[in-house]
Design a protein that fits this description.
Blueprint lengths: L6 E4 L2 E7 L13 E5 L21 E8 L2 E3 L4 E3 L3 E3 L6 E11 L2 E10 L2 E16 L2 E12 L5 E4 L13 E5 L8 E3 L6 H4 L6 E5 L3 E7 L2 H5 L2 E4 L5 E4 L7 E3 L4 E12 L4 H12 L2
Antiparallel strand pairs: 1-2, 2-3, 4-5, 4-12, 4-13, 6-7, 8-9, 9-10, 10-11, 11-20, 12-19, 13-18, 14-15, 15-16, 16-20, 17-18
Length: 280
């Protein structure tokens, strides 16, 4: 663990550690991540490198297909072949902090594969208290195409695997004996919520709740990727219905605000905290 990995704090309480330079094998697509992330009472709500998916790294940004390079980790889904081991992994490299405070930071990153930079990212992360039992993680990332040519971002879904449009912001949650409850303002259950567009989505475990909210119009257009039964994880899909094109010099920006709460919230409680966190 590098000594420039900051600890996020809310009113003096540590709620998350950000690892800037993880020592990981290339196959896991090394990248900065937040882990552990905890509730204000100290309950861990992230997992790192679990046995079911060693490339799931707490909270961060992971994309399985940037112009054919894997920034997600593990196998690559190849059309008509399925999940395939390929030597195509990229890495997100910490380039420095523009700002660093106890409650957040602004970071510059380089997305590199085959010795060349494909994307430059600016990542802004902030932790804010909401109540005695809840806080919010505000996570914005902007990806700029620095190649000088057009490129595109894809997912297993755009490469032929139905229902697997993962790629973008991703939170690997704590796995427990019982699968977490998943719901939005208008639906509940993994099958109903996965692939849907909703202003917010909640994942409620035994003694904790995570509520994910798209905080910009563009982010709210992205469908949710949800897993609960196989493993608990939530992401916002950059490439769901088709590949996301990025022309030379173009930038894609997304912002997700996540409420981290002690206890099991109901719909009204989740909605109220999202309104407070996002300011709507």
């Amino acid at each position: 663990m590098n000594n420039d990995s900051p600890v996020l704090r809310v009113v003096g309480r540590p709620v998350g550690r950000y690892i800037t330079r993880p020592e990981l094998p290339a196959r896991l697509s090394p990248r900065p991540y937040l882990h552990p992330v905890t509730t204000l009472a100290g309950t861990a709500v992230t997992e790192l490198g679990p046995a079911d998916h060693a490339h799931h790294l707490g909270v961060g940004v992971a994309v399985p297909d940037v112009e054919g390079y894997n920034f997600w980790g593990g196998r690559t889904y190849v059309r008509d072949r399925g999940p395939t081991e390929l030597d195509n992994h990229g890495a997100q490299r910490h380039a420095g902090f523009q700002l660093r405070d106890p409650d957040g930071f602004v970071e510059e990153l380089r997305w590199v594969a085959a010795g060349a930079e494909l994307l430059h990212e600016r990542r802004t992360v902030a932790a804010t208290g909401l109540s005695d039992s809840a806080w919010a993680l505000d996570f914005t990332f902007s990806l700029t195409n620095t190649t000088g040519r057009a490129l595109s971002i894809g997912s297993p879904a755009t490469n032929g695997r139905p229902g697997a449009a993962y790629g973008g912001f991703f939170w690997r949650a704590r796995k427990e004996a019982r699968a977490p409850h998943v719901f939005t303002a208008g639906a509940e259950g993994e099958e109903s919520v996965h692939g849907s567009r909703a202003d917010w989505l909640a994942l409620a475990g035994s003694s904790w709740t995570l509520v994910f909210a798209g905080a910009t119009r563009e982010t709210r257009r992205d469908p949710w990727f949800v897993r609960a039964v196989e493993y608990p994880g939530v992401g916002s899909s950059l490439a769901h219905d088709g590949r996301l094109p990025l022309g030379a010099g173009e930038t894609a920006v997304r912002r997700i605000v996540t409420v981290v709460a002690d206890g099991r919230l109901d719909r009204d409680g989740a909605a109220a905290l999202v309104r407070k966190a996002v300011g709507t």
